[in-house]
Amino acid sequence: MNRTTALFSALLCTSAPAWAGDKPLYQPVPDWVAPAAMPDPAKQTDASPATVIYDQQHRISDGQVWAYSEVATRAVSPQSLAGMGTVQLEWQPDAGDLIVHRAEIVRGGERIDLIAKGQTFEVLRREEQLEQLMINGTLTATLTVEGLRVGDILRIAYSTTDRDKTLKGNAQTMIPLMAAPGRAGFARARLSWPAGDKLSWRYHADGTAPKPVRKGGFDEVELSLPLAKPADLPPDAPARFRKLMMIEASSFADWQSVSRTMAPLYQTDMAVGAEVKAEAAKIAAKSADPRMRAALALRLVQDEVRYLYRGLDGGNYTPQAAADTWSRRYGDCKAKTLLLLTLLRELGIAGEAVLVNSTLGDAVPERLPSAAAFDHVVVRATIAGKPVWLDGTGSGTRLGDLDDVPAFRNVLPLRIAGAEVETLATQPPGRPAVETLVEVDQRAGVNLPALVTITFTMRGAMAEMMRTASAQATAEQLTEAAQRMANGVMGNMLLNGRSVSYDADSATGTMTATGVVGSQWRMRDGRYRLMLDKTLGQMEFAPDRARPAWKDIPVVIAPGPFAGTLRQRVRLPGGGTGFEVEGDRSFAAPLAGMQIARSVTVADGVIAIEDRLSTAGREIPPAELAAMRAQVVLAKKRLLEAVAPAKVPPRWKVAMTGGKAAFKPLMEAYARAIALEGDDPNSVNAYLNRASFLGGTYDAKAALVDLDRVIAKEPTAERHFWRARLRNTIGDADGARADAEAGLALQPDAGEGVGLLASLRFDAGEHDVALAMLDERIAAGGKDKADYQEAKALMLGEAKRVAEGSALMDEVVAAKPGSPSVLNGRCWFRGTMNVELEGALKDCTRAIELAENPAAYLDSRAMVYFRMQRMDEALADLDAALETAPELASSLFLRGIIRKRRGDAGAAEDLAAARLISPQIDKRFGRWGIIA
């Protein structure tokens, strides 16, 4: 704990009494220090360690710790001089002295004594919150080194002494141990104490501990450093398996002694103060329920007393008086704990202070009994015979959280009679820390974008953090935060609204984001499917215990303890008729240490899912890991998903039957996104998304309006090619050509642009120019060569040079005989040119057999069957292609032609759909002599 001594006299008076050790002393190195071996400066090279000496020697005697340090560092570069040029030494003057023994520059065989030259340390008092008339008592002695050059060695030796009255004659210390890859010319750790003293010491590192030896009436242990690199550990290993890389020493006999020594600091039988009594009276007037009183007292301390200073390590352990903490409205964990205990006593609630380690609580039993094993203090109250844990430095704790057990693992109660270290049995929290509600409106259709609302609710400390951050954030930063949250849940969402709120009574923060996401339904096994299992879908459990040295190390479940809730509501098209839900609807056993309580309902066209997750954060023994891995793998094979009916209206049908009314909610959502984005003049994301939607629903003219805005702000090759395709779709060949040329000017090597421009030039009658463009790319080779050859073959065919095109396609197939796309290319060429149909049929059939998604290849074979007048087989292939690719305009057009010739009533819809998707399709098929 940091010292909280009030120095009102020093701040308010011009002449104030100084501490006994408030100035550095200059003395020789004490006799008990073993001299460090200084490497020969003349033998230092660029490969030598920059740290020449790193020597740490501590002596404990008569309740005092004398810590001697010597550090010599070589200035290896001009940059290193900046860090070496100022030396800062800190100490606590109310506990002891800072003693400077040596400050010198070693330059070759010369030693420059900086102190003898008058370069002495200046003392700074590091002040915090000076406007509150408090300083922390730490002093800093600073030396600005003059004359330091590259190649010099700066050698500093000093001591600090520490006799902490709070420890009642006990002493404790820790010496850090340097380990590889750290390097030093000479490095050592040494600990000594009077022979016969009851002092315990412990080595916390890999390898064999040093053995004590007796010299001149003192016992000592010494280690040459650096030690070997610590053994690697898996990241999910418990803290107690991680070496602390230190030697620690303590004169405390046991944990009982530590508890007895520290307990008097938190006795509340002293003067309480009128203001604290008044606050307790206000709480008592609000409720007679002890739990509610405890919750209100804790909220008062958390919310009305700001935190200042840190932890228990390294200083005065005495808290300031409760009355002082309340009047000043600040305090560290010690001060807040004493104030909270005082309030509880006034409210008739029993409580005690408890020492904890906030990060290494699992390792406390591995430590020596000492106050230094802890860095925090909290309150354990007893209400109705049950423990209630209260942390005054926390935030957002409310009545529903009082039964939570903190994750400190091991704690030491402070009692006048003494106490032993206790191990806490963890349990899931009473309230979920996070609740996520995802509402998806998919009523426009499973193959169309969805409207989404995400509500992210945080409680307790997380809510307080959100409250603070949102209060300081700009509108743009809040939008960015909402976007990150939305993307984390839905992948890539176009944001069109967000809000942030906080409820102080429940300590609950809420962030809401609304927007649009592209359809996340995917075709598999002939049905559209939506992955619903965001819980198992994101769960990973693959602890690594393959190394023999790791086989007995448990796995820590993190985060823990933890509780959270994920709710999803998906509104289905068509009132949900024909939709199903597959996958696990419940879990009998925990998965990866996480208990999952799941409920799934399907009613009134809505799929509702709720997953409640909780874990106590327990450790999983190595013997259970294999079975747990298998459970997770098996569960992930049965992920929850929605399955659409076999017959889903394609986008063209929605566009044709519903018109603009069908897309009105989506268009309004895009308009809101554009309005939100209007605050950012450089962003075009909303316009891009709406252009994509409009193009995907076959309104090319409206899509062009948005794309014009985008390209005016941020032109790219890809966007020019996109606009070229849209312009070509509506018959604007000149505009399409201009865009293709503009795109190639930005990205000359873009294969898409070359093919597009060549096609446009060919359509304009510039056959030789178009073919020359493709020849240039074919000659360059590369992975796209076959695509250019196929494009050239089709142009040759349409230019009445069918034999040349056929020969070129044969050359492509010979180079890649097993490629389904190449086989399909030759099949399509032969079908459209109405040549070598038997060979074309073989090519397409082989391509279909090889392909994972054969829709386009079925379309090609249908063309061949059509040419062969085998209409039933052509229709069968077209139906199969449109089953998985219902937007395939060529299949719709050809099926419409066949149906029309047969007098089928469905012909008109097929032809209208094909023309909606591809307005130039009649012209395209007309080139091949196929007229609707």
From TrEMBL:
Keywords: Repeat, Signal, TPR repeat. The keyword Nucleus does not apply. The keyword ATP-binding does not apply. TPR repeats lie at residues 855-888. This is DUF3857 domain-containing protein. PROSITE patterns: TPR. SUPFAM superfamilies: Cysteine proteinases (SSF54001), TPR-like (SSF48452). Residues 1-20 form the signal peptide. It comes from Sphingomonas turrisvirgatae. It holds the Pfam family DUF3857. InterPro entries: DUF3857, Papain-like_cys_pep_sf, TPR-like_helical_dom_sf, TPR_rpt, Ycf3. Residues 62-224 form the DUF3857 domain. The lineage of its organism: Bacteria, Pseudomonadati, Pseudomonadota, Alphaproteobacteria, Sphingomonadales.
